[in-house]
Amino acid sequence: DTGVSQNPRHKITKRGQNVTFRCDPISEHNRLYWYRQTLGQGPEFLTYFQNEAQLEKSRLLSDRFSAERPKGSFSTLEIQRTEQGDSAMYLCASAGGGNTIYFGEGSWLTVV
Amino acid sequence: DQQVKQNSPSLSVQEGRISILNCDYTNSMFDYFLWYKKYPAEGPTFLISISSIKDKNEDGRFTVFLNKSAKHLSLHIVPSQPGDSAVYFCAASLLNFGNEKLTFGTGTRLTIIP
Questions:
Q1: Would you say the C-alpha torsion B57, B71, B33, B108 has a positive or negative sign?
Q2: Sign of the alpha-carbon torsion through A29, A34, A37, A43
Q3: Tell me: the pLDDT tens digits for B87-102?
Q4: For labeling, which of A37, A63, A72, B25 is most exposed (least CB within 10 Å)?
Q5: Which residue of A has its CA nearest to B90?
């Protein structure tokens, strides 16, 4: 399967700890997105990469959040000093030659 | 400001009948629209899309209609099947500005009754 891959799928962490999620996009997709989804809401845009360049960041992405895509392939999303409000599903998506964005299965974060 | 709205949080439809899911948007600059289907604990799965230069796009049992003057789109599923039970999200983007970033609605939970 060459779809978008995310890990870990589930993460439970204590408040104040750091967590990191990894995303492997579809091969040769140069555009990569991170979204966050909470219960009862649609996915909300966090940030966007074209190759290794981070081109856009949402105001939702506080200073505790950082995303990287060092070689233009996989990406990581790190949350420092987690808070209970960070509990959500973190979705990665990628896009290639077409206009459609394809999502991974998501990474659930629970902050206790 | 919710730029993409799905005003029906839930919808129940008998198996074999037509399911119609609605979506409204406020930003007239949106020019590309998509529908995604989502099962619990999974990521959204792309279903069908439509460009603003069209008013209809069909793919198998799924048809999307776009009414630009009303800023409204709808997804028709015919015939509805039990496997269609999921949450459906409408999304929009500004492709003319070279930006695929999606703005999503809050979703409609579709339940197909056998």
A1: negative
A2: negative
A3: 999 999 987 666 788 9
A4: A63
A5: A42
Residue spans of beta strands (DSSP E) within A1-112: 5-7, 10-13, 19-24, 31-37, 44-50, 53-57, 65-68, 75-79, 88-95, 102-103, 107-111
Buried b (16+ CB within 10 A) or exposed e, A34-45: bbbbeeeebbbb
Q: For residue A2, what are the contacts with CB-CB under 8 A and spacing of at least 6?
A: A26, A27
C-alpha count within 13 angstroms, C-beta hemisphere, residue A2: 4
Express each pLDDT in B8-63 by its tens digit.
999 999 999 999 999 999 999 999 999 999 998 889 999 999 999 999 999 999 99
Q: Which residues of A touch B (CB under 8 A)?
A: 4, 6, 31, 33, 35, 40-45, 48, 56, 91, 93, 95, 99-106, 108
- Is A40 within 8 Å of B95 when comparing Cβ atoms? no
Q: For residue B44, give the 3-state DSSP assignment.
A: coil
